[in-house]
Amino acid sequence: MSVALFDRHVLSRAIFDRQGLIVATDGGRLIGLVHAVLEPAPPQHAQRIGTIALLLARHWHHRAAAERRSSSFTRIAVATACVWITIALAVPAMAARFFPAYQLFQAARASLQPKMQFAAVEFQEPSLVWYFRSRVQGFLTPLKKLRAAEFMNAPDPRFIILPTSAAGELFANPPAGWRFFTINGFSIAKGKRVDLTLVLKSE
Fold first, then answer.
1. What is the pLDDT of residues 154-165, one digit of tens each?
2. Phi, psi of 32, deg, nearest 5
3. Element housing 97 (H / E)
4. Statement to judge: residues 74 and 129 lie in one domain
5. How far apart are CA 175 and CA 194, in angstroms?
6. How would DSSP label each residue in 109-171?
7. Of 128, 127, 160, residue with least CA distance to 145
8. 45 & 104 share domain
9. 80 and 174 fall within a common domain
10. Pick from 32, 113, 118, 188: CA 20 to 30 A from residue 158's CA?
11. Model confidence at 20: pLDDT above 70
12. How many CB atoms lie within 10 A of CB 125?
């Protein structure tokens, strides 16, 4: 894998947090690493959720033995990282078309603007950040249903993702120019199919 490809598909992804990557060394030798990421939190939580995405470590209390295992551990660390990168590149390409966030992103992609704000009701999967942050600069705002209309009535371009039933109830008479994108997909986090609608205003 080239440096450019690694940077494009790993380091430059919105979900990748450089400050969450910690590498431990001993005398210049790699002895462990951990990568932690932050996921959007449900509305009832005040802070985002921390997740350890990758953890590697080796024993160093027997220095002589550790010296002999150093190169072996390095090979294991590199191999493990390559496996994770391969999964990150291959699996999404094959399965992404079934993910609700991907379907919504593809449906609304041509209407997205860089300075848009976006929010979600009852669906705050990290995949929303992965896909939509590649086109918009705003951050995902988790909302409760009661605040959905308030969010959309605020100035500036924006969009909101919510259950289709809620969209029909809250935005039964939308202003001219608002666009609606509706999909049906399988949510891995919920373990069931979901009907979602993206409501977008461009100005």
1. 999 999 999 999
2. 175, 160
3. none
4. no
5. 26
6. GGG--TT-EEEEES---HHHHHHHTTT--SPEEEE-GGGHHHHHHSSSSEEEEEEHHHHHHHT
7. 160
8. no
9. no
10. 188
11. no
12. 20
Distance in angstroms (rounded) separating the CA atoms of residues 39 and 189: 13
Q: Is 41 helix (H, G, I), strand (E, B) or coil?
A: coil
CA angle 16, 14, 185 (to 5 degrees): 110
110 lies in the same domain as 181: yes
Task: Give the predicted TM-score (pTM) of the model.
Answer: 0.56
Residues 90 and 119 in one domain: no
Tell me: the pLDDT tens digits for 28-41?
Answer: 776 676 665 554 44
Bridge partners of 184, per DSSP, are 195
Q: Give backbone dihedrals phi and psi of 197, rounded to 5 degrees, phi first.
A: -130, 135
Residues 37 and 131 reside in one and the same domain? no
Q: Kind of pairing, strands 117-121 and 29-39?
A: unpaired
Q: Domain check: are 112 and 188 in the same one? A: yes
Among residues 55, 73, 95, the one where a domain terminates is: 95
Contact predicate 140/159, CB 8 Å: no
Nearest to 9 by CA among 69, 121, 87: 87
Contact of 179 with 111, CB cutoff 8 Å: yes
29 bridge partner residues? 26
